[in-house]
Structures are given as C-alpha cells and as structure tokens.
Amino acid sequence: MKTSVILNQENLGSVLSNVKAPTYDRDKVTTSIVHIGVGNFHRSHEAYYTNELMEHFGVLDCGICGIGLLDYDRKIYNILKDQDGLYTLMIKELDGTYTAKVIGSIVEFIFAPENPFAVIEKIAHPDIKIVSLTITEGGYNLNEATGKFDFSNPVIIEDMKNPMSPKSVFGYLTQALKLRMERGVGGITIQSCDNIQGNGDVAKKALTNYVKEAAPELLSWIEENVSFPNAMVDRITPVTVAADKEILKEEFLIEDQWPVVCEPFIQWVIEDDFKAGRPAWEKVGAQFVENVVPFENMKLRLLNAGHSLLGMLGALHGYNTIDEAANDPDFEQFLKDFMDVEVTPTLGDLGDINLDKYKKSLIDRFQNIYIKDLISRICLESSAKIPIFLLPTLKQQLRNDGEITRAAFVVAAWCKYNDGVDENGNTYEIKDAMSDTLIRAAALSHKDPIAFLKIEAVFGELVNNKRFVETFTNTLNMLRINSVKLCVQKINSSSTSV
Ligand code: CS2
C-alpha cells in the first residue's frame, strides 16, 4: 500500500498519477511578478493561471515572488518555505469529486516584517514587470464615503515617519518605485486583483495620494512609467478546513499543510495596459478587453452583492454555509428578484454578455452543495464590502426612481447582524475593521433606526435620502418583529415594495 508523501519539490516525482503536478522544470522559472497578499484567492486564481501557462505552454519567465506584509502572513510564508512554494489546488467539481493539482508558479517568498529591504529591492529589480495585489477591499485605505486617502491610519502615519522601513503596501511601493526611478530601471504595472469597481483606478488613486505627501518628486515618474489596469476577478474560494487536508491525504496521498479549495468556475477579464509587458494569460483563459467596466459591474453587483445578501440573511436565520442559504426556496426567490428587479436595471449595455445565462450560473454556483463556503467568510469585513457591492445599486436605483426594497432589506439585515446573535440565540463574532462602530450603531438603532445609517464612512450622504431612510426603517422594523424568513416571504409575495 502506498503511503502519503509530504509535499515539496523533492517528492514531486512520487505524487500519484491522479494528481496533476508540474512537469515543467521549476529551476528554470524566472520571476517577473511580485504578488502582495498570498491568500487563498491569489492561489486559486492568478497563481493558477500562471501555473497553467508554465505547464501547457512552457512559458517560464513569469514566476511569482510572494510577499507577506502582515504578521499574519508568517504562517503561509513558513508553509510555502517548507513546501518549496508548492501547494495543492483542490478543485471541487460539480459532481462532488475533486481534481487535485499541484501549483508550482510561486517560486520565491519574502516575509516583509523580517526583511523589508529585500521587498523593496525585489520590486525595484529590473526583471520585475508586474506587482499584483490582493490586499482586500478595505486595503486601499480610501474612505468609502469621502473617497479620500486616510492619512490618520496609524500604519500610514508610521510609514510617513519612517519611509525606509515601511509597513503598508503604499510605503513599500513608494520606496521601490523611487529606486526604479533613480536607477532608470523602467516602467512597471501595478495590477489589482481585488473586488473593487475600477480596481486599477482605485490602486492608482490610493498610491498617488500617498506619494503626493510622501515623495512628491515621484509623481510624474509614476504618471509616465506605471500602469494600473482594471480587472474583474472571479473564483469562489472558501476557507480551507481540516477535512480538506484529510481528504487530500486519504484520497490523493498528499500531505499539504495548507491546500486551497475552489470551485471549477474561473474568470479573469483584464484591461490590456501593461507598461512592461505581461504573460500571455489569454492562452489559458483570461480575457483581455478594452473596457472592463461592464464585467466588473455585473460581477460585483450580482455575485458579490448576492453573496452578501445570502450571507446576511443566512447568518440571521442560523445557516452556516452559502449553499444552505441559496438552496432555501424563499431566499432563492428573494435573491432572484433582487438580481432581476433591482440590479439588472443598473447594469446598462453589457454588449455580448448573456445576462440571463450569467444570473442562472450564479444561482447554480451559490447552490453548489460541495462548495461549503462559510457564511462567516462572506460576512467578514462587510463595512468594506457593502459600499462596493451593494450601495452602488441602491444609489443608482434611488436616482432612477427604481425599486430598492430588497437592497434596503439587506442593509437592515446587516444592521441586525451586528447584534451578534442569530434567531436561534447563537452568538457569533463581528469580524470587521469597523466592528466597534458597527456594534455601537446597531445597538443604538433599536431605539433610533437611523443611527446605523449615520455611519458616515459607510453610508455617506445616503442618510439624507428620504426614500432610502424610510424603506430601511420599514424593513428594519419588520425584521425586529418577524423572523428573517417571514420577512423574505412577505417581500417575495408583495409586488415590489414593503
Ligand atoms: C465574496 C468573494 O468576499 C466575499 O464577500 O463575495 O470573496 C467572492 O467569493 C469572490 O469574489 C468570487 O470571485
């Protein structure tokens, strides 16, 4: 009987034939991409595409150097060090079986807190053509309501004081770009892979705002030498749980300390604006387009907002995973109506995209019982997500006199969610950079519903919109006296408004 093998380069030859492992020569891979934020999503998405390019087309000059900026990243750094950068992607197919693929495109890793200079030198190195980012929606340090860069953030204050030993992504990029400018190394692309409308534009805005204060002499160089393509990224990537590691060990005989689980679906639509060239990711399924906005709108407003909707409603009801909530017929109906009645009118001309098919595929993906995507993953950091995923729909519908009941109800559900207890009396933790503010406002909202909408950094001017305030208040009151399921049934059966 074969025994399991510990995943590392030396053991690659011994993995079972039912595991797809790199057959390209990893020693020949050279690094031209630096990636900041090597979480599960990067590993199921960009690193996966890049691995496919290496494996199927022998393109070996696009190796990735991972950077861990936060203390929290020490774990992934140590694990990838142990495993020579290798990890297993466990793709959960629609029939419940797994495809296991060892990914080899991450060939270097620097843990920034231990070696800040190495990070700066790496990004400044002439071989590096792209710095890609998955730093989360909140990581761009822009106040959602005012759009301004937050210079009161303690990490930013520190970086302004000690530019040579930065901690924030903006501090690092500034130092590295300065070196590139001084050394005449040439242009580079900063490529955001976060779920944000105009993610490239947002990355540019955040960085240039910081640079204006920290190193104004760099501004015109950035303008000429750095590009920030916008992109839509998509692949549902749940949190890895112990059972996944067990299955990998039992079924595939691989011992991987941190495999990544994901759905089979994958999409990457990118503006083709790369200052120093780029890998031919189109060969492995990425789409390069002139204008990514329609794709972004569609994905953020339907998929990500759909996730938040199922997450909030599901959490209150006491569901654990997104598939449970999505397979509840009342929630499913509510989600479909939200998509059709409230989001679709905001999407404008989508060109060739078949929206009905897209919406149908989203329901299927949410309902996939094999993707145990935790509701807690979806609900975390909602103060950074809701303004990007949901509020643009609400604002546009308000402007156009369109229907807003369901979107307002999701905001009301989010308010109630911050009480930290579901309808069965089970408590949960509010994991959010703004948790104190959210919890306080949610508590006040029991007496004064508008208290929640007064969180300026989230809602901005929306608190002054009479129709929104009324709809929110009605739905919140309804939610205070009825279960979330009953409310949803009521909204489903009423024509459009409460
Ligand atoms: C999710 C996303 O974080 C969230 O709330 O909606 O992580 C989502 O799973 C991905 O964007 C899918 O591409």
TrEMBL record:
Keyword NAD listed:
yes
Gene3D superfamilies (UniProt xref) = N-(1-d-carboxylethyl)-l-norvaline Dehydrogenase, domain 2 (1.10.1040.10), NAD(P)-binding Rossmann-like Domain (3.40.50.720)
Transmembrane segment boundaries: none
Indicate yes or no for the key word Protease: no
Alphabetized InterPro entries for the sequence? 6-PGluconate_DH-like_C_sf, 6PGD_dom2, Mannitol_DH, Mannitol_DH/Oxidoreductase, Mannitol_DH_C, Mannitol_DH_CS, Mannitol_DH_N, NAD(P)-bd_dom_sf
Q: Which residues form the Mannitol dehydrogenase C-terminal domain?
A: 291-478
Boundaries of every Mannitol dehydrogenase N-terminal domain copy: 32-283
Pfam families recorded? Mannitol_dh, Mannitol_dh_C
Q: Which UniProt keywords apply?
A: NAD, Oxidoreductase
Molecular function GO labels: oxidoreductase activity
Query: What's the Enzyme Commission number for this chain?
Result: 1.1.1.-
What is the name of this protein?
Answer: Mannitol dehydrogenase family protein
This chain's source organism reads Christiangramia antarctica
